[in-house]
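User: Let's play a game. I give you a shape written as tokens, and you guess the letters that built it. Ready? Here's round one.
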């Protein structure tokens, strides 16, 4: 082969390789998704100023973060053509701070934060503001911090629905002077404080007039279901099993209560919940849990995405109120929760597509579903 021909072939080869490399670089903005704890979901950039970073807290406190919030937020940002990332700190505040730093370094202009505790949450908000980014407190308010917007449900109303639901369950069972235990959420979660404010506004007057007797009352660190199981077992031990009803702050804690009762071969008690998980709905159908609270995650995610997109575009998000945060008022988008019992499962979680009949009516729950008209 002549040197001239060899040179031509070499040049062609170089051009071909360069074309492949260019094609590979160009694909980096294509939509992708990975649901592992620290992985990100990204979509193509649009005309927005920067990108939006979603910082989810864990997979332990609730199944919602990975099963629902990630999916709905990704769908909302994708539909709007907004570049975004979604990561999960897996319960580690240091990891969440690192994720925030990385997002800001990569150009995020809006942080959508579900904090793990007020201290670490505040440090992330302060960092974002120092870099010129905006912050949305999503689901829970970061106490002592200055998020630009707060998007959540009216969490005092959530607690009131739980308290009212427990009262109805107790009356339906015709229990007289029942001992009521309270299994509260994490002491570091402001939402848990608001839930308790709501249900205690219903229960405290009944304790005071002697209608109910206040039993053991304890918070569960980090909403940890295994810790909840241990705590409730200790409650049963301390009271010689003399607990007649339980205000459990979410479905995970309710499942811990139900498990502890089952292990001791004790009868089902009126037990509340929250989050309308498949497991919680199954417990309701089986008669082991009397109610849960449905907070339409898609509506919450859509509201948060809308606010984030507005902030990214330099606009002021539409809000419907404010929420007190120490001496400040945070502009807020607050949605309305709904109590769910066996009577309205079809009209709430199934109608909205939050859960399907196939997810609920499995195995031993099939007959209960048929009985309930599902």
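Assistant: Ready! My guess for every position:
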């Amino acid at each position: 082969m002549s040197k001239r021909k060899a040179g031509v072939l070499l040049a062609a080869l170089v051009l071909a390789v360069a074309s492949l490399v260019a094609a590979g670089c160009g694909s980096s903005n294509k939509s992708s998704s990975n649901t592992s704890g620290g992985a990100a979901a990204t979509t193509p950039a649009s005309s927005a100023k920067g990108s939006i970073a979603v910082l989810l807290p864990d997979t332990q406190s609730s199944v919602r973060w990975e099963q629902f919030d990630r999916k709905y937020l990704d769908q909302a940002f994708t539909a709007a053509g907004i570049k975004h990332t979604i990561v999960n700190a897996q319960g580690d505040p240091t990891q969440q701070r690192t994720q925030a730093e990385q997002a800001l370094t990569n150009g995020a202009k809006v942080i959508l934060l579900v904090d793990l505790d007020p201290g670490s949450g505040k440090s992330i908000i302060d960092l974002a503001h120092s870099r010129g980014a905006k912050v949305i407190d999503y689901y829970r308010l970061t106490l002592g911090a200055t998020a630009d917007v707060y998007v959540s449900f009216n969490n005092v109303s959530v607690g009131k629905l739980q308290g009212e639901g427990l009262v109805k369950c107790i009356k339906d069972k015709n229990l007289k002077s029942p001992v009521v235990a309270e299994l509260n959420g994490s002491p570091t979660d402001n939402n848990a404080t608001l839930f308790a404010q709501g249900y205690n506004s219903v229960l405290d007057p009944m304790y005071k007039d002697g209608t109910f007797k206040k039993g053991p009352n304890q918070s569960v660190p980090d909403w940890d279901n295994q810790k909840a199981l241990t705590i409730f077992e200790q409650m049963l031990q301390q009271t010689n099993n003399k607990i007649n009803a339980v205000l459990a702050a979410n479905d995970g804690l309710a499942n811990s209560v139900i498990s502890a009762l089952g292990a001791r071969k004790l009868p089902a008690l009126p037990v509340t919940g929250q989050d309308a998980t498949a497991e919680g709905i199954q417990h309701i159908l089986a008669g082991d849990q009397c109610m849960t609270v449905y907070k339409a995650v898609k509506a919450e995610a859509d509201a948060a995405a809308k606010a984030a997109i507005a902030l990214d575009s330099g606009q002021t998000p539409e809000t419907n109120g404010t929420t007190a945060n120490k001496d400040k008022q945070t502009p807020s988008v607050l949605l309305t929760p709904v109590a769910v019992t066996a009577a309205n499962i079809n009209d709430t979680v199934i109608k909205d597509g939050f859960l399907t009949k196939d997810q609920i009516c499995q195995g031993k729950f099939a007959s209960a579903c048929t009985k309930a008209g599902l």
